[in-house]
Specification:
Layout lengths: L1 H34 L6 H34 L5 H35 L4 H4 L2 H21 L5 H29 L1
């Protein structure tokens, strides 16, 4: 059992080191390309920039912290683990949540663009998108503050409900987008 855990952690460390490199490189290039592309509509550009920034943050902070967490587990250095885990949660949770909700926001935006083409510009204004992006980041930042206040069994149920709901809604929206095309 210990050998399997050791091998799993080593494989995860190697995989996340590669993902870290690609997340930083590709999201950095995406941010640069979005800033240099004036032809994209401003609302779409804001959503894509928000997603790229959150994913860049995951690459810069999330992956290295996860690698550190795995290394601490390998060393069985549990004395510093509770403090590290608190920092890990407060840094990675907002970034991962912002990324997750960013994908959902983009799915909704593209759905509205395809299914309501005549009303899209009236419904999806730059100001509304900026408000939504700010709301996503504020909500994502509040999650690690709220999480410790909720009993753990309730927190896990709420987390599961939110994750499953977002996956289902995003999946349905994307299915409807691709069935229309």
């Amino acid at each position: 059992m210990v050998g399997a855990l050791y091998s799993s952690n080593i494989a995860n460390i190697v995989l996340n080191a590669g993902l870290c490199f690609f997340a930083i490189t590709l999201n950095g290039a995406t941010i640069y390309a979005l800033r240099k592309t004036p032809s994209l509509p401003k609302p779409l550009k804001a959503l894509l920039l928000s997603l790229a920034v959150s994913d860049l943050g995951v690459g810069i902070l999330g992956h290295p912290l996860y690698i550190t967490r795995l290394a601490l587990e390998l060393k069985a250095d549990l004395t510093s683990f509770p403090t590290f885990y608190t920092v890990y949660t407060f840094v990675t949770s907002p970034l991962a949540s912002a990324s997750f909700f960013g994908v959902l926001s983009l799915s909704l935006d593209r759905f509205l663009a395809i299914h309501l083409p005549l009303r899209y510009q009236e419904l999806v204004t730059y100001q509304r998108v900026v408000t939504a992006v700010i709301s996503v980041w504020v909500l994502s930042g509040l999650i690690p503050l709220i999480w410790p206040q909720i009993p753990i069994h309730i927190a896990y149920v709420l987390f599961a409900i939110v994750v499953v709901s977002c996956f289902v809604v995003s999946g349905v929206l994307n299915s409807m987008i691709y069935s229309k095309i």
